[in-house]
Design goal:
homodimer; about 350 residues; alpha/beta; eight-stranded mixed sheet
């Protein structure tokens, strides 16, 4: 091909792309309609999900569910984003304790703060629930809700995951983001139901998952309304309000959503009760467990770990015919940046 | 006009109405577009509401608010439906105590149950918060959430208001139902934020107000997840969980909605904090108080009553330029059945 011919070809290509540009979004849409879950390999997991959606959306079909009742609930840590080597919110709490340490000289000799400051995870784990609660209160309470929102927003923009060296929000699972969008495109209302702090998630869930604040259910501490200098504010108190984990998940679903989901997605024993509550209620129901089986691209763990332990829920999955997603074989890619 | 002429005219009218029948919904819609609030008299209240909506929905205007942030919160008792002579939920509790009395022979000699069974409202009021709590627990706890939903649904279908002799759901205010629909048509998400029990409201709010269960915030008792005979259930415990009234309203808004409203509607001092939280935050905001001024068509009360007392919030309305709706002059009709 001569230089002139090549130039002509490029010119033609440029003209063509200009001509076709208005059509491109439609073409992309058509493609998306062909496969709304491009990051999922074909297989039983993908089929179980698309088959369920087809059944409950088929007008006049035996399993049809009206759009208003198409509630889907998603755990967050380990289901929508990475929860290893430690929960992201724990990483946040540890960073906050370090940032606040200059104001608390006593922390260098008091547990669990000493362990937190020294990065001594073993001692920290040994401090148990009580120690964790102290850490959470010291890092999450004592400011207004507006102040806390700013602290979270700033942290999530700058903090990096120790292994992937990327912002935590980029460590959300691409196949699950596609799944959230696919369900919404089919009339579902998608909710997050997480053991994590609700005010730790709300500042970024809309941007990352397309889930607005009012559809995020999580654990919380108490707040107090007060007028200060003639302006209303909500002050965050060092007192636990609600733990949205384990048997707390159906309680939270009932309290915050007020409708029973028809589909639920989790990855650990903390999601067992939510999956039971969702699927054991008659009619077409979908229960999905994300099984971390890919140590190379992400992590591999189930029965033996402390964080996100998947044991009883894995047994229950077999018994109740829940879909167990094998990350290694079911997901073409895990992260958007791959 | 002769008989034959009259008959001919009637025949013509019948034909015409048949011909025009398919067009009627469109005509009605066109009319509704002209005036989305037909039960509101023209005046400062209606103008304040429509002016606010015009400002926040004007793309590119200085007060424009994106649809996702157009959150509007409504108190229920006295704002969306009648709360006199007693709160509807108290009428429900009293009926439940009567229904359960055969199983509790001790109630004929124990307060506040004796007073409840005898309809002795004076003694009942004197039993105070503690007495009310006992009444609520006896009538609202001790069954599953599914069982309670059925009890509420059955009661609301059959109970009648002592003065109006109609189902309580028919005693919702037609102008407010139009207002809810008008806001939704303008991209608002409408929430109920009520001191009433959330599980007492959710079974009927969608049908009556167009507000789905997940957009109802209210007071609640604790529930417990349990498996019974291999089936999951939520059991209602005789323990208070959250009081969504007074300073609890902004707390509830933050906890259950997670976004600050831009418009709030109330009728009593129980709504004062919600109105402060909503309106004192910069940007175009709307605070509205329904003032009960029509003893003939409904009730007239403000500073002197026990139920739905409007005192501090009325002073605050003047100070903060909230819109005070005068039911007598602002509302063309109060109920749909008028």
């Amino acid at each position: 091909m001569t230089a002139i011919n090549r130039r002509r070809l490029l010119a033609t290509a440029a003209t063509l792309s200009l001509l076709f540009a208005p059509a491109l979004p439609f073409l992309r849409q058509a493609q998306a309609q062909t496969d709304p879950l491009p990051s999922w390999n074909d297989g039983p997991s993908k089929q179980a999900i698309t088959g369920f959606v087809a059944r409950v959306t088929q007008q006049g079909g035996p399993d049809f569910v009206p759009p208003a009742e198409r509630i889907a609930t998603f755990d967050n840590d380990g289901t929508l984003w990475v929860d290893h080597p430690i929960y992201t919110q724990l990483a946040f709490a540890l960073d906050r304790v370090k940032a606040l340490a200059p104001l608390h000289s006593e922390w260098t000799s008091t547990q669990p703060f000493k362990a937190a400051l020294e990065g001594d995870m073993k001692t920290l784990a040994e401090s148990g629930e009580h120690g964790m609660a102290e850490l959470v209160m010291a890092s999450h309470a004592g400011m207004t809700t507006a102040e806390f929102e700013k602290i979270v927003t700033d942290w999530i923009a700058t903090a990096r995951h120790p292994r992937f060296k990327r912002p935590y929000t980029e460590l959300s699972y691409q196949p699950m983001i596609e799944l959230l969008a696919y369900l919404r495109a089919n009339g579902f209302k998608t909710f997050i139901v997480s053991g994590g702090g609700v005010e730790f998630m709300r500042p970024w869930t809309e941007r990352v998952y397309g889930v607005p604040p009012e559809q995020v259910v999580g654990s919380s501490i108490k707040t107090k309304f007060q007028m200060r200098d003639g302006r209303p504010e909500l002050f965050r108190l060092p007192e636990l309000n609600f733990v949205d984990d384990g048997p707390g998940k159906p309680v939270g679903i009932n309290e915050y959503i007020g409708r029973r989901p028809i589909a639920a997605f989790g990855n650990s024993d903390g999601d067992l009760a939510m999956l039971q509550w969702t699927t054991m209620s008659g009619g077409a129901r979908l229960g999905v467990i994300v099984h971390h089986t890919d140590a190379e691209r992400e992590y591999a763990y189930d029965r033996d770990t402390t964080f996100g332990r998947l044991d009883k829920a894995l047994d229950a999955a077999a018994l109740n015919k829940w879909t167990v997603v094998d990350m290694k074989s079911d997901w073409k890619r895990i992260f958007a940046f791959e």
